[in-house]
Automatic annotation (TrEMBL):
Domain RmlD-like substrate binding: from-to ranges: 9-329
Signal sequence annotation: none
Protein name, as recorded: RmlD-like substrate binding domain-containing protein
Phylogenetic lineage: Eukaryota, Viridiplantae, Chlorophyta, core chlorophytes, Chlorophyceae
Classification via InterPro entries: NAD(P)-bd_dom_sf, RmlD-like-bd
Alphabetized CDD domains for the sequence: dTDP_HR_like_SDR_e
Amino acid sequence: MHSSQQLSVLVTGGSGYAGQFLVHALANAHKVHYTYGTRQLASAPSSAVAHKVDLATGEGLREAFEQTVFHAVVNCAAISQPGVCESAPEAARAVNVPNHLIDCILRQEQEKGVRAALIHFSTDQVYDGSHAMWKEDDQCGPVNVYGKSKLEAEQCIVSRLPEAFPVAILRSSIIYGPPPPEPVGRALFLQFVASAVRGAQPTTFFDDEWRSPVYVRDLERLVGRLITTAAEAAAGEARAAGAGPGGPADGPWRHRVFNAGGPERLSRADMARQVADALGCGHGAIASASAASINRGVASPADISMDVSRLAAELGFRTTPFREALREIFPPPAQGQ
């Protein structure tokens, strides 16, 4: 990996919500490839290369690695709806635990001598929700199939990729932002909330489940920074006389796991009120309720707010407060309009 050259970056799950934003953002500096399941991105940058891949079986993935040497892989592919995972646990595990992707990363190093950095999107749902402001080293205890599959994915990555590989596991919370360039086939959190608070009928939001929602633009910047630091570390290692496989102290980051959330602990009712404020709607359409009052058919952790201080301490990276991000997403009308 060379920091002075354009890098080849593979974004798996490039047609999903975060994936679309990452494909567009990373294409400004790198040669981006992305995977899709059924439909290519019509809006993708002209320089981006699409690969049809079945992530459950790995079909198409090995071909992508045979065609291109990847310096970095950003894995944001997942079945992320807890209800879907609960009803089809084996299908969820087949996609969410990236064994096929790790096979390809290891094979590339063995056959081509290039050690790809892996940036993997995990979830705050690896925590059991029994207290506030979780830290990365706290004991995990997921309460649903989705969280369990994502924790297994983390364990798979850490156990299969030697410490010389640059790995960053990002435990993201609710990812919010503007609509993506193309529909993703499911309801989007912020857009649902905005529609609800504008409505005439009250919508219920839980006031006793807490998260640390993260702005998708922050994730663009964070992933870009991780790719750059991994490239710089690899270039430094290559320049060092007699450099061999690096140990933990030789990698670009001291740790492999980072809480990737916003800086605040917010309930869904808190978020709805802040969205209403940003839109100038008032709070009349917001009704608060306890999560226990509604049977969603799947267990949900009560408090998985996260301490994100490791991002600042190790990467000098700070995420955007929810209210500040809303001002970017829903700018006030210009005076006179």
